[in-house]
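Colleagues,

For the teaching module next term, I've prepared a clean inverse folding example: a structure given as tokens, and then the sequence designed for it. I'd like students to try predicting residues themselves before seeing the answer, so please don't circulate the second half yet.
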């Protein structure tokens, strides 16, 4: 199975303090340990990194932060998005703090045009 890279580009609501943005970002990063596989009850996110934009290309489309979540499979990514209690709590807790959210999932070197079932 191909690794799934879950790319999240976002910006935060303008009224958030820098401290709250850092707190929310650390909360996002903590999902690597909080998200547990339903069968093994062990963390299943391969890697989770993030940070503030430092691009010089001026093509951010309003986003200010980026995160990459790596999963072993599409099934793991789907469980994370649709069922994982830790992710569901995270989304509920801070979802309203996001201003812009852009999500793109891909696997390395897969470029064929295939319609997603969602």
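(Answer key — instructors only)
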């Amino acid at each position: 199975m191909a690794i799934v890279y879950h790319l999240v580009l976002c910006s935060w609501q303008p009224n958030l303090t820098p401290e709250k943005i850092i707190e929310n970002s650390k909360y996002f990063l903590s999902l690597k340990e909080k998200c547990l596989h339903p069968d093994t009850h062990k963390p299943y996110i391969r890697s989770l990194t993030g940070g503030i934009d430092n691009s010089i290309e001026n093509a951010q489309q309003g986003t200010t932060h980026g995160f990459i979540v790596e999963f072993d499979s599409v099934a793991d990514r789907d469980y994370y998005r649709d069922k994982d209690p830790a992710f569901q709590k995270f989304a509920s807790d801070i979802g309203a703090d996001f201003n812009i959210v852009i999500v793109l999932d891909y696997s390395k070197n897969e470029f064929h045009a295939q319609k997603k079932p969602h």
